[in-house]
Structures are given as C-alpha cells and as structure tokens.
C-alpha cells in the first residue's frame, strides 16, 4: 500500500487560494459524513499515473476539494482552501477483477475506498483509493465530505476530471468545459430584515423534540440490490397515465412495495424524504454549475391505506406536489432562518439519521440518475460497474443508472431483515392500471 498527498497542478494560482470560506445554511443542512462511491474498470484500465495526473489538473479548478474543514474560535466550521491536497491510496490486489466482480457487485466494497475518518475536521475532504488487480483492472473508491459539495456539484467535477484524463499525458489539450461558480455567499443572501416563514427547526434541523426513530444493531439491516429493466420502466410509465420522469414513477412504485412488505397498519402514515436540487428554484436561479450544496428535501406523505389503494398516477402527483413546495419563497425562508439562528448564537444540528436507524414507516430517497458518475471515462471507456456503498439506515435508498442495462435503473436499498425477502418477492409486481381522471386538474 502506498499513500500520497496529491496537490493541484496550477497554471496560475486559483483566485480563491488561501480563502476561509464559511459554510452556508445549505452546507450545514447536509449530512455531516463522507460519501463513498466505487467504480470498476476492466483491463486495460487507465494507469494510476494517468488517474493521479488528471486528478491534479482537475483539482486546480476545484480548490475546495484540496482544502480542509476547520473550526473557528466561535466553534463554527468553515472550509480553508489551503491547498493541503487530496489523499491518494494505491493498493495492489493479487486476484483478477473477474474473481470479485459478480453481476456488477463486489462483496467487500467497504475495503475498496479509504477508511472513513473518525474526525471530519482536519481530514482531507476528498480521498481516492486505487485498487489495481492482477489482470490490470482497476477499482477506484472515492470518498468526499458532504459539507463540501452535493451530488450535482460532484458530477460536474467528475466531468472535468474525465476530460483531463482523456486529454492524455501532460494534459496539454485539456480545456475546462465551462467556468464554474464557487461563490457560496451569493447563494445564501438574507433579506434586509430576515423573516423565516416556515418551521425549519423541525424540517432541515432538529429541535430536540422532533420525531426520533429506533436505532438497532447494523446486522438487522440488509442491503438489497434490485434491477429495473428499461422494459419494466416503460411499462410503469404507461401505467402512470401521463408524462412523468423515471424517478417519479419508480419512487411511486418502490414506496408502494416497501410499504406493503413492511405490513404497516392501514391507518398509519408514511412519508418519503426526497432530495430536491434547489439551483433552478431560487430567485434569481443559482447556476447549475455552482459547486457547493444546494439541496433541500420534500416530504410526500400518505396514509398507508391510501398509498396502497392509489394508482401510480395519484402517487406521482403527491410526490410532485410535495416537491413543488420547495420554491423560491421556501428557500429564502431557510436562508433567513440561518441568519437569525447565527444572530442568536444558536447551534444547528441537521436532521440526518445515524447508522442503524430504522426509518420505518418512512423512507429516504436519493436519485443519482441525473449525475454522470457511472460515465466517468478516464480514457479507456466508462466503468464496467458503478456502486454506492452499503447503506447504514433502514429505509434509505438510491436510484443509479444500471450498468447492465443502460436505460434501466438499479435500486440500492437498506431494509429490515424481517421483510427483505418479502420486498424482493413483490418488487417487480406491477399494480393494475386505474382511472386517474379525478387528478387531471392537479397535473395542469
């Protein structure tokens, strides 16, 4: 094993070099963890030197990733763009990639990315592990801290890194696809008189009396992988009865099936925590290439009886209506809330679940369908597999473009071991179409 602290390669120093960047209210609402992802490249895979040199070139345009989280004398976190570098770990594996990669999955995935730091402050916020197999194949594990960036931002970084790698040795022809927006302060400007209009203390942050979920030993939570083919998604769309996204129709379907598998009481309520990209929802809009955090959450909610008896179209409308509430007024209210909290010296704790949490009867969904993580071509083609880590929270799920079926979707979900088998038995059964005419007005 070899460990290197990789610094960016600058043609000229970045304008933000040395800056101490305060975390915005969106950064602070994000979960305080490192997010792992794993990509596998069959031989002939890009060499370690190509990966490292292209990474160093790309980092020159993303100084936050070479910085550190630091705490000031008032106990507030900020990002110090100190050019301290990215940790790169190189490992040699004495087996062929085909020996461990089975049906697009690897059993020991937790060993393929750097160990998650015990203390987030002061650790490299971006770390890479290059696992080189006997056959020449490569598995690249990455972790990054969520206070630095959300999935949309990291997707833009992956595009630049890929472009640098494909430019070849020396990266002489490497051109950044587009300028990137790094001004975090401009995304969180309060009104002259801050006036929160919504109950953010109970939504994005904890108030100490918010609903709490049970926490159990991790061995009671089973990670399940389900593949939905392009044909399945097309049939599901047709049963919705009107134009909708792949994400919306699949979420409606999985919400129904997980709820049925759990065997919840018909009168109980269930909700889904849905990540919403706020870049295009602010007034004025934040550019899509903004590098940072701009995600909030919608909470579609239904009674179990209603959910299971509703058509797909009706459930999709509930999801859409919840997401539509995350508008410019709501986002501005959160910015004002953060300003007021700071004025009062109030410490905020994000509503993120700890490992072992049982979210039942609720769910949380992250969609990576719009990201380009699975297309990261470093010069030898896209990965043959793209994998999220094992999920530590029951009810947490991720949609990922399928590596086996480019138009299909892979679902990774953590479920209670008591109903994992039931969910796998029913997850591909489709509800019968029903008439959605009463919901026409809601769609217009």
Automatic annotation (TrEMBL):
Gene Ontology molecular function terms on file: acyltransferase activity, transferring groups other than amino-acyl groups
Gene3D superfamilies registered for this protein in UniProt: Chloramphenicol acetyltransferase-like domain
Key words of the record: Acyltransferase, Transferase
Signal peptide annotation: none
UniProt xrefs under InterPro entries: CAT-like_dom_sf, Plant_Fungal_Acyltransferase
Coiled-coil features, chain-numbered ranges: none
Keyword Lipoprotein tagged: no
Protein family per UniProt: Belongs to the plant acyltransferase family.
Record protein name field: Uncharacterized protein
Protein source organism: Eleusine coracana subsp. coracana
């Amino acid at each position: 094993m070899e460990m290197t602290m990789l610094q960016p390669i600058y043609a000229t120093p970045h304008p933000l070099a040395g800056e101490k960047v305060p975390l915005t209210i969106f950064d602070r609402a994000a979960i305080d963890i490192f997010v792992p992802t794993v990509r596998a490249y069959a031989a002939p895979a890009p060499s370690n030197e190509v990966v490292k040199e292209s990474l160093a070139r790309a980092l020159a345009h993303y100084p936050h990733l070479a910085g550190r989280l630091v705490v000031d004398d008032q106990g507030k976190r900020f990002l110090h763009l100190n050019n301290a570098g990215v940790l790169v770990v190189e490992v040699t594996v004495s087996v062929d990639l085909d020996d461990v990669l089975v049906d697009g999955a690897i059993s020991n995935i937790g060993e393929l990315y750097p160990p998650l730091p015990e203390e987030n402050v002061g650790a490299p916020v971006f770390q890479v592990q290059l696992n080189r197999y006997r056959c020449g194949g490569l598995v690249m594990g990455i972790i990054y801290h969520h206070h630095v960036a959300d999935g949309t931002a990291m997707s833009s970084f992956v595009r630049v890194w890929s472009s640098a790698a494909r430019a070849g040795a020396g990266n002489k022809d490497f051109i950044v696809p587009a300028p990137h927006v790094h001004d975090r302060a401009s995304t969180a400007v309060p009104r002259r008189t801050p006036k929160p209009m919504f109950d953010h203390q109970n939504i994005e942050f904890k108030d100490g009396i918010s609903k709490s979920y049970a926490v159990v030993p991790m061995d009671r939570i089973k990670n399940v992988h389900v593949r939905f083919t392009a044909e399945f998604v097309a049939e599901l769309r047709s049963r919705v009865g009107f134009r909708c996204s792949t994400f919306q129709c699949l979420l409606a379907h999985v919400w129904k099936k997980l709820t049925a598998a759990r065997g919840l009481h018909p009168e109980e309520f269930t909700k889904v925590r849905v990540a919403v990209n706020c870049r295009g929802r602010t007034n004025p809009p934040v550019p899509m290439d903004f590098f940072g955090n701009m995600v909030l959450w919608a909470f579609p909610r239904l009674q179990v009886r209603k959910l299971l008896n509703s058509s797909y179209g009706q459930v999709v409308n509930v999801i859409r209506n919840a997401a539509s509430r995350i508008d410019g007024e709501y986002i501005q209210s959160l910015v004002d809330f953060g300003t007021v909290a700071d004025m009062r010296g109030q410490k905020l704790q994000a509503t993120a679940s700890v490992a072992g949490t049982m979210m039942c009867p609720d769910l949380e969904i992250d969609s990576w369908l719009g990201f380009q993580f699975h297309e990261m071509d470093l010069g030898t083609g896209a990965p043959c597999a793209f994998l999220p880590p094992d999920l530590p929270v029951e009810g947490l799920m991720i949609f990922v473009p399928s590596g086996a079926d480019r138009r299909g979707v892979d679902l990774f979900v953590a479920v209670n071991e008591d109903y994992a088998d039931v969910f796998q038995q029913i997850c591909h059964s489709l509800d019968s179409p029903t008439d959605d005419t009463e919901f026409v007005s809601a769609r217009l």
